[in-house]
Amino acid sequence: MGGPVAEIAPPGAKAMTTAAGNDSPIDPDAEIELKLSGQPEALESIFASPTICDKSTGRGVTRRLENVYYDTHDQRLRARGLAFRVRRHGRRYVQTLKSNDTEGLVSYRGEWEAPLPSSEPDLAVLPVGALEILQGLVTPEELETQFTTRVKRRVRRIRLIDQKGRESLIE
Known about the structure:
This protein has helices spanning 40-48, 50-55, 76-79, 128-134; strands at residues 31-34, 61-71, 82-89, 92-100, 106-116, 144-159, 167-170. The protein is an alpha+beta fold. A 7-stranded antiparallel sheet has the order 1-5-4-3-2-6-7. It is elongated and about 50 Å long.
């Protein structure tokens, strides 16, 4: 069976996630996504299930997001497994650089965000880790709009049972 595996360790043990075929542990503070897709009725039944409702910290919210994705004309970011976007959520803008370290049903990736005063990307305000990745790869002048997405996202916070009491999102 190929594909990434995510595990939650019992209390007192260290949680470790590894990608299939790779014994290197994933940074415990990294974003790990489990994406669900299906018919709206099936997804709604998951959100309404007793297991989710019992662990939820609220009823959930629906968000409308607009994302503009950027790359160079020769797709240098994509070729290196990177995605750069500016997201509008209400009147706020946030730019994000993501690295796809593994893909599949469960994906692990690096993510660096920075708020923006407008919809215009500004590489200079990204965190140091993102700037190191982009150094010598792309200049601000080379970024071009690739596509735009408009998403209606349903989010519900559930609480993971781990030693750090971290919360997880189910979307």
